[in-house]
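User: Here's a structure from my thesis project, written as structure tokens. My advisor, Dr. K., wants to see whether a designed sequence matches the one we expressed. Can you design one independently, without my sequence as a hint?
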């Protein structure tokens, strides 16, 4: 360093150092060096010392100005950054990060007040390593933060655990200790008189926070409160706009649903007025609801469907009937069931598939379709009852007085679309505890004309009587769950022939019941020789041929005596020894002939029923 030879040299050196931003030590060294050299007298040294002190004060003032300028720049940068943020969480993180950087502390954090609970929660932190500390909940007035939140005034402590100005609690002190904090400064985030929360700056060592630092953190908190309030308002506005858009969408969807419902109502009303039936309703409703619809009766039979029929769900139907509205099935979430009722009476059900959800308007439309279906079913029932009465009267007159006015009977049949002059099989249906009207309704699908006569269901149908009787017995038994016995006769053409066929069909039913063949269907031919005995038009020759034909043909072709052997065998009580004596042949010959008969008639020819028929046929053949 250059020696000091005059006071002016020392002053110049002080000014140069001050201009270059020298440290305090460098400025103080100028006075020390001049005193050590001894080149200046006491007065000059005193003046130089005063100049050094002035230089130090100027340096401190400049440093303070630079520090304030840096803080202002940081505050402006913070304000600009906060103004650009729109998400509340992003704003909070930026506030905490800036506070830690501006004050140069170890940890900064921010808590927000919950006015409803009267507590403040640590929301975000920067520099924190303790999970317990980050989850601290402060009651109003508890701890330093609770005191700031309650009083809306800044508080600072250089040693948290020895400071008695605020109320310590176990869980707060435990969290602060777990984080290792000692010095804490807290300032309120407030908009007017409303405190939003508290902004903290803290160190893990002892530290005195200056008034400038308190003011700086308070300024940052003021900026942050405004930015946070703006972000909250913007977030609320966004939510309000989203809710408004959702409400508008709901209104639009509701309006569209109402328009669909009105359109569907008009279409259904038009269908009913134009005489539409269940398939038309099913197609219309399926088209409006964008699904597939199936209409069931009370027994689960399909009455109409717009696509592949759905599965009948008795449990869902019971739930719909109990609730009085459409319900979703448990087994399939895209299937809905609605009971069809007329008051308390169940008429059937609707099943809609292909819809995972069924909103209010669509659900009401589905239920309205159930009302329309009930109306159609009641109308159909009225029509059916009227037709049944007319058809029943025709059937009664046909069977009780066929010869009174045959032409009138034929004309009445034609008006109902029935040609009584054409051949018809006549069937009599018998069952125990099933309603005759229900049985007649179920049998209608097999009949040209059906009704109840003499407490039995009678139907006229086309086809082979025996085959038709077996089919009707099986079908009605499956529908009712009860054994249904069906006797058949015919075919007959014209009133008198049909009446005679009815009498024979009634005898056939009685014969089936007497033989223990309940639940079967047959005609007289199907009863074997008993049918021949009971039938009005017994064909004995046909019975003989049906029973003994293979044996008679064999005898005729080969010149054998198998038929005579059969007569002798039965006449001898089915004993081989007596048979050989009657025929005057060896017993082996009898055995061989019987084996040939078994090959022609079947191995069961000696069964009691077959043996009886064969003996009767042998007697009739001998008479013939």
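Assistant: Designed independently from the structure alone:
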């Amino acid at each position: 360093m250059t020696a000091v030879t005059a006071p002016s040299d020392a002053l110049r050196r002080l000014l140069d150092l001050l201009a270059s931003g020298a440290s305090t030590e460098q400025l103080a060294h100028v006075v020390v060096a001049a005193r050590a050299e001894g080149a200046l007298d006491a007065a000059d040294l005193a003046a130089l010392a005063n100049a050094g002190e002035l230089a130090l004060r100027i340096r401190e003032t400049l440093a303070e100005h630079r520090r304030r300028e840096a803080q202002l720049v940081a505050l402006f940068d913070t304000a600009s950054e906060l103004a650009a943020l729109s998400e509340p969480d992003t704003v909070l993180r930026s506030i905490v990060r800036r506070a830690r950087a501006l004050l140069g502390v170890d940890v900064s954090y921010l808590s927000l007040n919950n006015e409803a609970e009267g507590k403040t929660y640590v929301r975000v932190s920067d520099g924190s390593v303790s999970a317990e500390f980050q989850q601290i909940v402060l009651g109003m007035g508890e701890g330093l933060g609770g005191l700031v939140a309650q009083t809306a005034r800044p508080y600072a402590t250089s040693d948290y655990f020895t400071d008695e100005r605020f109320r310590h609690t176990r869980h707060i002190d435990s969290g602060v200790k777990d984080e290792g904090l000692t010095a804490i400064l807290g300032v309120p985030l407030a908009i007017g008189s409303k405190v939003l929360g508290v902004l903290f700056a803290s160190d893990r060592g002892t530290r005195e926070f200056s008034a400038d630092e308190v003011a700086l953190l308070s300024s940052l908190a003021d900026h942050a409160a405004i930015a946070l309030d703006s972000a909250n308002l913007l977030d609320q506005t966004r939510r309000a706009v989203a809710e408004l858009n959702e409400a508008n969408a709901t209104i639009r969807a509701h309006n569209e649903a109402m328009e669909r419902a009105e359109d569907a109502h008009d279409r259904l009303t038009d269908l009913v007025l134009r005489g539409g039936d269940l398939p038309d309703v099913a197609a219309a409703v399926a088209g409006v609801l964008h699904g597939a619809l199936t209409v069931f009766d009370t027994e689960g039979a399909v009455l109409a469907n717009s696509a592949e029929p759905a599965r009948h769900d008795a449990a869902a139907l019971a739930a719909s009937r109990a609730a009085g509205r459409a319900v979703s099935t448990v087994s399939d979430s895209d299937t809905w069931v609605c009971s069809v009722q007329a008051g308390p009476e169940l008429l059937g059900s609707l099943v809609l598939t292909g819809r995972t959800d069924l909103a209010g308007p669509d659900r009401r439309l589905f239920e309205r379709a159930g009302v329309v279906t009930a109306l159609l079913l009641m109308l159909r029932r009225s029509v059916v009852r009227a037709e049944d009465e007319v058809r029943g009267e025709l059937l009664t007159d046909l069977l009780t007085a066929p010869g009174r006015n045959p032409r009138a009977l034929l004309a009445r049949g034609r008006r109902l679309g029935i040609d009584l002059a054409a051949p018809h099989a006549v069937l009599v249906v018998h069952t125990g505890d099933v309603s005759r009207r229900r049985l007649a309704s179920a049998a209608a699908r097999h009949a040209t004309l059906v009704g109840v006569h003499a407490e039995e269901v009678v139907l006229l149908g086309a086809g082979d009587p025996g085959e038709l009787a077996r089919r009707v017995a099986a079908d009605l038994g499956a529908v009712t769950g009860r054994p249904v016995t069906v006797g058949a006769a015919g075919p007959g053409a014209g009133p008198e022939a049909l009446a005679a066929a009815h009498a024979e069909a009634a005898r056939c039913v009685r014969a089936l019941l007497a033989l223990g063949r309940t639940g079967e269907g047959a005609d007289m031919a199907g009863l074997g020789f008993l049918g021949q005995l009971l039938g009005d038009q017994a064909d004995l020759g046909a019975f003989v041929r049906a029973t003994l034909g293979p044996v008679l043909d064999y005898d005729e072709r080969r010149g054998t005596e198998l038929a005579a052997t059969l007569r002798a065998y039965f006449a001898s009580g089915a004993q081989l020894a007596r048979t050989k004596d009657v025929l005057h042949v060896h017993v082996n010959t009898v055995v061989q002939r019987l084996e040939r008969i078994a090959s022609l008639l079947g191995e069961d020819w000696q069964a009691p029923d077959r043996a009886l028929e064969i003996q009767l046929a042998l007697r009739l053949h001998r008479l013939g």
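When you compare it with your expressed construct, this may help: The two ends are 166 Å apart (CA to CA).
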